[in-house]
Specification:
118 residues; mainly beta; 7-stranded mixed β-sheet; 4-stranded antiparallel β-sheet; 11 strands; 50% strand; globular
């Protein structure tokens, strides 16, 4: 059974930092491209960042220079370090696992809420 379990969300003041974690099981973690997406109230889910099995990363323009995605294949965990948080970063953040060969569909976690507010 595939599980992606996010943690680390919460309430933070503007300018603050948070680190999200996503622990994966039931997949060949070292092969999959792992990603973080977010969905703000009233908006569609959108890409935040991805990291391939080889460590290549991609970021949404809105988070470049502030967020860092990383992965630990030994722990089957992907991280999202978020610095200089802004109120517009408020959203539910979802972990995603994608087969790079597209043989199977994506897997998603249930999400963790990040609220940036003073």
């Amino acid at each position: 059974q595939v599980q992606l379990v996010e943690s680390g969300g919460g309430l933070v003041q503007p300018g603050g930092s948070l680190r999200l974690s996503c622990a994966a099981s039931g997949i060949i973690f070292r092969v999959d491209t792992m990603g973080w997406y977010r969905q703000a109230p009233g908006k569609q889910r959108a890409l935040v960042a991805t990291v391939t099995s080889g460590g290549s990363t991609d970021y949404a323009d809105s988070v470049k220079g502030r967020f860092t995605i990383s992965r630990d294949n030994a722990k089957n965990t992907v991280y999202l370090l978020m610095n200089s948080l802004k109120p517009e970063d408020t959203a539910v953040y979802y972990c995603n696992a994608r087969d790079p060969y597209r043989i199977r569909g994506d897997y998603w976690g249930k999400g963790t809420l990040v609220t940036v507010s003073s």
